[in-house]
Specification:
heterodimer; A: mainly alpha; 78% helix; B: alpha/beta; Rossmann fold; 6-stranded mixed β-sheet; 3-stranded antiparallel β-sheet; globular; binds adenosine-5'-diphosphate; binds magnesium ion
């Protein structure tokens, strides 16, 4: 350990992008070949080309549904992030609050959303609101539990330092606990992003069976009833792509916020 | 160097028992005078850190009395640099001032000034991750001194550093001490380090942690690399080493 600064190694490994892309192309090619060679009818398994065509042709109605699902997902994520953060801060301030409320958060988490979605949809008149509640229930827990751990993970010596300088509770929270919790919060957010989408889709399925929704899940159900399997696949592709996009966007956000100090965001040679 | 000032810290019959039942220190009487450079020397587990935390007010004694400077009269340097990884060197050093409510601009300016004094001019905007072990420790020392405390407490601050870096930081600490005239309590388990730095060495014994002996190192300051190789230094090291052996046998 000499007295020269350690310079973080910059570098971007293109294989991390190229390798999965290559696998994807191989699988799609194989799929298309299989469908054509075996002459599998499109109502059993459509090929990637047909799915792409359907996606293009039906983009008008599919994009509207995508918008509906995205809106629910983002609102739910926003709600989950803010309420999760606020509740975690409350927990960190008072062990009594944490002890009394945490079990209920766990109950919310372990109850399968499919089981309670019908109830919520019956109780709440507004469809959008009921979907939002379902998606929020699914997305909320990882943020709450991660942030709670993060707030308590502040370096003990730094906490002692705060005491030495007679920092107020608020100062300790703002200057020490919240920044220390940031990586934990962000990794919770990344998990919750995917969960919010799943929650929204599941709730739409439940609501869709009653014909009361218009999101992507409803398109999947509808296409299934009408045996428009390529369209069903097209909607499915949109769901997957949305999930991937959400995950990548949140990973990027996390990287941008942490890159200057956190090990997880450090570029490796 | 005159050290006949009034006591900055005094401990009377101090004991500390942890909740686990461990009696970490017992019957400690100690007066630390203004301008003193005192080393607490002892094997690991003899209660050095506990004693330092009692002096800092980070722990309450189970028995006895501790009097110390009030307000922000104390600076503390931990064994690890203990920096906020999300903040620049400058922001880390400015923390104590900003916690006291000093305006940010003023706090940052003072922080930059102190980074310069510990030899880190030009690294104000660096994040801890980009600094070497020795540089992080310098930031930690700058942070402890930025409030211009009367008393600086250091808990084995250089134990994790390589020897070359440690020697350099020893010299720089001595220089800061002679210039700024604060009082130092320096915890170490190294005989050589304690003799090189301190004016007064308190040798501790374990189970329960207590003061075994006190040795004055009469060699004059400024001390430099020439002192490290002098017969005087060697003689003091021998004396302290023997005291430590006696303390560990007792
Ligand atoms: N927070 C604590 N709780 C319980 N026991 C402790 C705690 N801190 C230190 N001890 C015990 O007190 C004794 C003295 O510890 P410490 O002051 O850290 O010694 P040193 O710094 O000389 O190594 C040890 O036996 C240690 O295990
Ligand atoms: Mg110790």
């Amino acid at each position: 350990m000499s007295e020269t600064p350690a310079i973080p190694q910059p570098g971007f490994n293109w294989w991390r992008v190229a390798a999965p892309l290559l696998i994807g192309l191989l699988v799609l090619g194989g799929w298309e070949w299989l469908v054509r060679a075996r002459e599998i009818p499109p109502y059993i398994l459509p090929g990637p080309v047909l799915i792409a065509e359907t996606l293009w042709r039906d983009w008008g109605s599919l994009s509207v549904s995508l918008g509906v699902t995205l809106r629910i997902t983002f609102l739910a994520l926003l709600l989950a992030a803010s309420l999760g953060l606020i509740l975690a801060v409350l927990f960190a301030q008072s062990p009594v609050i944490e002890m009394s409320l945490f079990p209920y958060a766990v109950i919310l988490q372990v109850t399968p959303i499919v089981a309670i979605a019908p109830l919520i949809i019956i109780w709440v008149d507004d469809v959008t609101l009921s979907l939002l509640i379902c998606a929020w229930i699914v997305a909320f827990f990882p943020i709450l539990s991660n942030t709670t751990v993060g707030l308590n993970s502040a370096d003990h010596n730094l906490l002692d330092l705060m005491r030495l300088y007679r920092a107020s509770r608020w100062q300790v929270l703002w200057r020490l606990r919240l920044p220390a919790a940031m990586p934990f919060f962000l990794s919770g957010l990344r998990i919750s992003g995917g969960l919010a989408l799943i929650g929204a889709i599941v709730a739409e399925f439940v609501a869709g069976t009653g014909g009361r929704a218009s999101g992507l899940a409803y398109r999947i159900l509808e296409s299934g009833y009408q045996l428009q399997i390529p369209r069903m696949f097209a909607a499915l592709v949109l769901v997957s792509v949305t999930g991937i996009a959400i995950f990548m966007a949140l990973s990027l956000l996390s990287h941008l916020l942490l890159r200057r100090w956190h090990e997880s965001a450090m570029a490796r040679p | 160097m005159a050290t006949a000032g009034p006591p900055v810290v005094s401990l009377r019959e101090v004991a500390k028992r942890y909740a686990t039942g461990t009696l970490a220190v017992q019957g400690v009487d100690l007066a630390i005078r203004e301008g003193d450079f005192l080393a607490l020397l002892g094997p690991s587990g003899c209660g050095k850190s506990t004693l330092l935390r009692l002096i800092a007010g980070l722990a309450e004694p189970s028995a006895g009395l501790v009097s110390r400077p009030d307000g922000d009269g104390i600076g503390f340097v931990f064994q690890e640099p203990t920096l906020m990884p999300w903040a620049t060197a400058e922001a880390n050093v400015a923390l104590p001032l900003e916690l006291k409510g000093n305006p940010r601009r003023e706090a940052r300016a003072r922080a930059r000034e102190w980074l310069g004094r510990v030899g880190l001019a030009g690294f104000e905007r660096a994040y801890p991750r980009a600094l070497s072990g020795g540089m992080k420790m310098r930031v930690s020392i700058a942070r402890a001194l930025v409030t211009q405390p009367r008393l600086l407490l250091l808990d084995e601050p250089f134990a994790a550093l390589d020897e070359i870096t440690r020697f350099r930081l020893n010299n720089d600490l001595l220089e800061l001490w002679q210039r700024e005239r604060f009082t130092v309590v320096f915890v170490t388990h190294s005989v050589f380090e304690s003799v090189y730095l301190a004016h007064r060495i308190v040798v501790m014994a374990a189970r329960p942690g207590r003061i075994a002996e006190e040795i004055a190192v009469t060699s004059p300051y400024p001390r430099d690399e020439a002192f490290r190789t002098s017969a005087d230094y060697a003689a003091h090291c021998r004396e302290v080493s023997q005291a430590l052996t006696r303390a560990m046998a007792a």
